[in-house]
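Entry 14. Structure prediction run on the chain below.
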Amino acid sequence: MAEDRSFPETFNLADYYVFSNIAAGRGDKTAILFEGQAITYAQVADKVSAVARRLIAAGLLPEQRVLLCMQDRPEFVYAWFGAIKAGAVVTQVNPLLPPADYGYYLGYVKPQFAFVDEASIEAFEAARAGSRFLPRTNMIIAGEAFDAWLADPIEGPADPWPTRADDPAVWLFTSGSTGQSKGAVHCHFHFPFNTEAYAQDFIGIREGDVTLSGARLYFGYATGTNLMFPFSVGATTILFREAPSAEKLFALIARHRPTVLTAVPTLINKMLDAGGETPPDISSLRFAWSAGEALPRDLHARWDAAFGVPIIDGIGSAESFHIYISNRPGDIRPGSLGRLVPGYEAHLLDDDGAPVPPGGVGTLHVRGDSAALYYHADYRKSVEHLRGGWIVSGDKFRQDEQGYWYFEGRGDDLIKSGGIYVSPVEVEACLTEHPAVRECCVLGKADANGLEKPVALVVPAGDHDPAALEVELIAFARARLARYKVPHAIAFRAAALPRNDRDKIDRKRLRGEI
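Output returned:
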């Protein structure tokens, strides 16, 4: 590993990301662009301080949980950093969920306070009414009610609770791909560690950058790329509440000329589809981030041909806060996840715990000083996946002789065909190169003899005869893949593949369709 990064014992990550900009003389610099407003760092700092003092005055106790259920708007920034500055432990969830999901989060988090968006209030209130954990008076609504709450007079002491670098600060929820989401508990210093090791030193985020994100702020990936990373260097972030359509992103790029875009492969594909024969000018971007799911090589090539903006693909997790293996400007290998970020260690082990040689597939073990402490209220999962600083997710990877890493799939998604592991990601990447395939998902299914074989679910591009297209796609795969990797059957669906709220394919739902 690279030499250790140290942070003072008395430490609060809101000071690191917000108030350090005031100390550096950037108070008048634009921190946020939102709906025609240019909000300075001084204005952000004032609002963050006001939120912290109001929470303390309202009875917030140290390390109590504060839940955010908000769209991408300035109030998210004020509430998130303000609660952390006050000494709370903060977590954030999707603001577009049904009441049942909010009921789960309220019961799991048991927040003392919650900040809720107007768009979420009906569903959230339905869940809150059936919960004993959140008094209605401790629920703050974004918009005019938020401003009125901040304007209430404060009586008595309202100084934030002191925090230390090792104190818990944030829960980041897992994607829930193998069950209900769990909160990975992180300390204050975890976020600056990854910010410096990855965003600043490895990628080169800088003060002159203007960032824009299709991924929403409740997703830790975007909380990093479109809030913490730009704030750490005094850059500017663009926020918007609407759904992140390709058209919306193109309009914001034309208006604000950002330099960094945060995307996911699904959104990259939508931007290509919406670009038309004459793609919009996005040349202000010096790179675009991609994460959340595998970026197919063909999709990367289409983007390069249409826009010429480098895509930085990488892998991270809620357990590590952010990315630890990544491509970087000037060192991009399409189809790979790039190289290990200095400051992190990683190795691959086989099913028996033995090291895997270069080119082999194994379970990734990664370690760095942003590793979560544990999963809240899940001892067994903590023991299995968080091992004294090592994160063992169960995901399968390989590393080539040059040190580039490749994602092969989640451990429970890999298909053992003919006694050999098959990566669904590899088969999906092959099939999506065919012009008749809009998107696909490859899963394992037992054949008549009880042996697991790969089967593909395909969303066609245009109208095709299913029987003829199945024969054509299997032949296409057979010409490009080893025999045991070729799908034994292909099923078609008219609707788009279902996705979870991190925009990853929901493989659990699709297993019932094969």
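The longest helix spans residues 41-57.
Filed with the rest of this week's runs.
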